[in-house]
Amino acid sequence: MVLKMGKIEKNQEREERIIMEAIVDAYGSEERAAGWYYYLDDKMKFPFEASCIKKIKSSPLNEGEKVTVLGMTDEDDLEGIYVNVQWKNRSFSVPLEQLHPLDVDEETVEAVEDWQYWVDRGYQF
């Protein structure tokens, strides 16, 4: 696991869950990326509604806009974690850290928050 500059305080319980469930037995960046992909794909229940919580240069979404999250992007494209969304009669991919799930089960919320924690701490694949 590579650490850049952590932006938020360390959460030991979340760290342990990530290590034991998302990146367990991952020894390189490709294995960590795949671990995250399958962890999130397994935990999140699609489709679900989400709200954009921050503007990201690579995404057309603005803060507060709502989308329907349809599923994970293709696992072969793992430079980050992206999800496919439906928005204004269009379908495209956005970074998962840009979204906050609305009215979903606890497991989906926990998975999304785990990924956002990872990103906010500055961890990389």
Provide the helix percentage: 25-40%
Cα-to-Cα separation, first versus last residue: 6 Å
Low-confidence stretches: 1-5
Round the Cα radius of gyration to an integer and report it: 14 Å
Integer average pLDDT: 91
Order of helices and strands: EHHEEEEEHE
Shape: globular
**Backbone structural class:** alpha+beta
SS field, number of helical segments: 3
Strand order of the biggest β-sheet? 5-4-3-2-6
Major sheet characteristics: 5 strands, antiparallel
Number of strands: 7
* Beta-strand fraction estimate: 25-35%
Give an overview of the whole structure.
By secondary structure, this protein is α+β, with helices and mostly antiparallel strands. The protein contains three helices and seven strands. The chain has helices spanning 12-22, 29-43, 106-120, and strands spanning 2-3, 48-52, 66-72, 82-87, 90-95, 99-102, 123-124. β4 and β5 (90-95) form a beta hairpin. α2 runs antiparallel to α3. Mean pLDDT is 91; it is low at 1-5.
Outline the secondary-structure elements.
Blueprint: E1 2-3, H1 12-22, H2 29-43, E2 48-52, E3 66-72, E4 82-87, E5 90-95, E6 99-102, H3 106-120, E7 123-124
Antiparallel strand pairs: 1-7, 2-3, 2-6, 3-4, 4-5
Helix pairs in contact: 2-3
Keywords:
125 residues, 5-stranded antiparallel sheet, two-stranded antiparallel ribbon, 33% helix, globular, disordered N terminus
